[in-house]
């Protein structure tokens, strides 16, 4: 298996750094090919601007259209092209990051903004009376798997169904469903470590064992059962879930998960 690890933490000696290193050693020890995109070490440029698109940038800048033109023309900047090539190379992508202010770090969001360009990650496929493009279960990156490994400062109870911070599945939904499932990636249930700022040595040893187990079962773990767009669950073109398909009592993001 070929695994890309996208790592977003500024401190190599952090908990996130340790989890990233453990992922590399565990997967390589199991015979996997591993590549790492260490965004801080790479000095990753987070902000999209006209420089990303070279001669294909328009005035005024139109990010979606210009990114697609540059992708088709092969004129995206070398750093963006390199990350797209890594995604096409990989069977599995592991994202290692802390939850900061209820979301991924800005540098990781910037990686998504610049790498997931039009014509690469979206804007592909047939648009017709029965299909609305290849997305949500189909697309350029279909056939790959992804796993979020997330550290959270607060206790697990704060992120439970009735927790004050909101359910962790809801907080991760925009990344898991909106970023990864959109271009066709199957998303595995996340690996979440709570109380990261107060973790003891013994707790870390237990967490490390659990993390190793998750890594060694990447190929056999069932993905989250997100509903696929073009397979009968949604009205087209409204893309509203068809009446009667919602599980009893379920609302919000949970409507888009089967079962």
What shape does the CA trace take? globular
The number of E-state strands comes to 6
Percent of residues in helices: 25-40%
Rounded to the nearest angstrom, the radius of gyration is 19 Å
Distance between the termini: 29 Å
Helix count, DSSP H or I runs of 4 or more residues: 8
Q: Detail the poorly predicted runs.
A: none
Class from helix and strand fractions: alpha/beta
Mean pLDDT: 95
Order of helices and strands: EHEHHHEHEHEEHH
SS strand fraction: 5-15%
* Sheet having the most strands: 6 strands, parallel
How would you sum up this structure in a few lines?
With 259 residues, the chain is of the alpha/beta class. 34% of the residues lie in helices and 12% in strands.
Written description of the protein model:
The chain is globular, with a radius of gyration of 19 Å. By secondary structure, it is α/β, with parallel strands linked by helices. α6 links the parallel β4 and β5. α1 packs parallel to α7. The chain starts with a strand and ends in a 26-residue tail after the last helix. The longest helix has 16 residues. It contains eight helices and six strands; from the N terminus they run βαβαααβαβαββαα.
């Amino acid at each position: 298996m070929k695994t890309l690890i996208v790592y977003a933490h500024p401190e190599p000696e952090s908990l996130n750094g340790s989890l990233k290193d453990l992922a590399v050693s565990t997967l390589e020890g199991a015979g996997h090919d591993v590549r790492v995109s260490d965004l801080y070490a790479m000095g990753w440029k987070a902000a999209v601007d006209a420089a990303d698109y070279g001669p294909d940038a328009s005035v005024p800048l139109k990010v979606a259209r210009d990114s697609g033109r540059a992708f088709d023309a092969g004129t995206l900047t070398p750093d963006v092209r390199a990350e797209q090539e890594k995604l096409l190379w990989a069977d599995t992508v592991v994202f290692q990051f802390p939850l900061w202010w209820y979301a991924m770090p800005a540098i990781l969001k910037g990686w998504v903004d610049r790498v997931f360009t039009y014509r690469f990650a979206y804007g592909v496929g047939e648009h017709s009376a029965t299909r609305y493009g290849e997305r949500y279960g189909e697309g350029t990156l279909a056939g790959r798997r992804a796993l979020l490994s997330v550290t959270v400062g607060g206790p697990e109870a704060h992120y439970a169904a009735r927790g004050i911070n909101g359910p962790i599945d809801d907080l991760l939904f925009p990344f898991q469903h909106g970023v990864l499932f959109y271009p066709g990636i199957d998303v595995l249930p996340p690996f979440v470590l709570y109380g990261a700022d107060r973790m003891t040595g013994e707790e870390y040893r237990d967490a490390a064992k659990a993390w190793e187990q998750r890594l060694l079962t990447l190929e056999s773990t069932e993905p989250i059962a997100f509903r696929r767009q073009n397979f009968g669950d949604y009205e087209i073109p409204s893309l509203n879930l068809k009446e009667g398909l919602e599980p009893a009592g379920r609302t919000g993001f949970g409507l888009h998960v089967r079962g």
